[in-house]
Amino acid sequence: MAAMPLSPAELIETYIERNPHHPGRADVRLKDSCVPVWAIVGHWQATGRDAEYVARGYQVPRAAVDAALAYYYQHQALIEERLAENAPDD
To answer: Where are the domains of the chain?
Structure first.
């Protein structure tokens, strides 16, 4: 029997942690790889919203990308602000 998919809260609990070097909800990261959630989201946005492609590119489980996206949907304004801060100047 297949396992039930994790809820957004369970994905976040499993894969997301606060960054001890950059406290704050905008700087959370993936637990195992330490990749910031905002970086995952930015790559996802830039690559046509292809979560599988992002997972392969960062060499992380697809569920970790799903967790980053779940966090993004809960804190969209905060992550968008961080993305804007890290965007290259034109």
So the answer is: 8-85
32 residue type, one letter: D
Which residue's entry shows tokens 């029997």? 1
> pLDDT above 90 covers what percent of the chain?
84
Architecture of domain 8-85: Orthogonal Bundle (1.10)
* Residue 23 near residue 76, CB atoms below 8 Å: no
How far apart, in whole angstroms, are the C-alpha atoms of residue 9 and residue 54? Answer: 21
* pLDDT of 2 higher than 80: no
From residue 63, alpha-carbon distances to 7, 20, 77 in Å are 11, 23, 22
